[in-house]
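The instructor's notes for this session suggest beginning with a concrete chain rather than abstract definitions. Hand out the sequence below and ask the class to guess, before any prediction is shown, which regions might be ordered.
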Amino acid sequence: MKRVSLIVTWIFSTTLLASAQTSFFYPHVVDGVLGATTWKTTIFLTNPSSATATGAITFTQDNNNPLAAGSSWQITLADETGSTTTSSVFTFTLPPGASRKYVSSATGGFITGFANVTTNSGTVGGTAIFSEFDTAGNLMGEAGVPAANPVLRQTILVDTTGGYSVGVAYANPGTNSIANISLTLLNNSGNAVAAPVTQTLG
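After discussion, reveal the predicted structure:
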């Protein structure tokens, strides 16, 4: 079968800001139990600079109810030492060259949303992974969620050959604005292969 690379336009970049401070998003995070499946999100942060970085990870619930849109949820995260914290905002301090791993506990009902990483000093990078487990705790599947910056236009590679699939996650971090999103599937020559799919995200 001929291998064709397709591109879908979305609203987030997968590059990090290289400034004195950092602000980026994980547009999709999950936590909790849904039926016979348990979902967890693992967040990785690293400080590549020569100065200490301090900041916070803020979780916001994905909710279609306008009265609750943008409300924060509380989850429990465990770091690599086993220390746990339950909150919607998690602060961190990363010395130069240090990294941190945080894993959600999935102790409650299933919930989805997005996370915002910000620093008030220094820069950090990172990625996230959400994982699916069966009732015995066996890993069934995982997907990576790269860090993303809010932008008006962006592209990602889509590969559907050999049984592969690509998911697209996007979030509107604005508190009082509506985002009109258009996703267009292109072939490797840059030509549209299907009509755009549009969606409004409040």
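Then share the key points. The chain has a mean pLDDT of 81. The first strand starts at residue 6 and ends at 13.
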